[in-house]
Amino acid sequence: MPANAREIAALVPMPRLLEALGFRVSERTRRAPCLMHGGSNPTAFAWTDGGLWKCHSCGAGGDRIALVRAVQQCEFREAMEFLAALAGVEYRPERGLQGFEGPSSVQFGRARAIHERAEQAAWRVRDDVLRLRSYYGDALRRVERLLCRVGQRLPLARSEAEREAVWINLALLAPAATYFLTAHEFLNRANASLLARFALAASSERRALIFGESHADTAKVS
After folding, report:
1. Residue 53: exposed, middle, or buried by beta-carbon count in 10 A (0-12, 13-18, 19+)?
2. pLDDT bracket for residue 97 (50, 70, 90)
3. Whole-angstrom distance, CA of residue 124 vs CA of residue 200
4. 3-103 homologous superfamily
5. How far apart are CA 214 and CA 67, in angstroms?
6. pLDDT tens across 186-217, in order?
């Protein structure tokens, strides 16, 4: 395989390629139903960020180029044109023994720079998601401990006024418990696209994402 064919293929992140081919992508599990044999097993098809893939049901496997050829039932040239379009470079086959003429050095350099910036941004988003998961998880545990401590005062109350005060404190804590529980579930169940939106959103927008879209979108977990 020509070296620059591999370089063009490497410019296309696997999640983007899989989505373009019609796979249901889960970056958390890196598993999906296999499109080659039409199975419904959600864990049959496995893939890596490095571009390798394998179906544990039908046995098919390979790299990005092999995946495009297998799914689209096309030749090498057509697969390369598909990958080049996703990578944002031009694929120009050339007649003769030399195979093809790849993108110019300037074009390839620009595409690689875009790819590297996108990869760096993706890692920053991933770090933000992990930080937010930790934050909301810790906040939920703190609120739960506080609810438990306040609730333990209820059977010890000696008067109606003391019991009323306990119930008021529990009522004040309830919205916080609901918010942190919903946020915790959201961050552990939402798909990659929605998690990225959440990580990049302003604090004032995150509540709307959690309560306005979590129930609808987390059902689309890949």
Report:
1. buried
2. very low
3. 10
4. Zinc finger, CHC2-typedomain (3.90.580.10)
5. 32
6. 888 888 778 888 888 888 788 888 887 444 44
Q: How many CB atoms lie within 10 A of CB 129?
A: 17
Alpha carbons 42 and 221: distance in angstroms, whole number? 11
Do 148 and 206 contact (CB within 8 A), yes or no? no
Cα 134 from Cα 138, distance rounded (Å) = 6
Residue 32 near residue 23 (C-beta atoms within 8 A)? yes
Instruction: Report the predicted TM-score, pTM, of the whole model to 2 decimal places.
Output: 0.48
For the chain, which residues make up each domain, given as ranges? 3-103, 116-220
Q: Encode 98-125 in three state secondary structure.
A: CCEECCCHHHHHHHHHHHHHHHHHHHHH
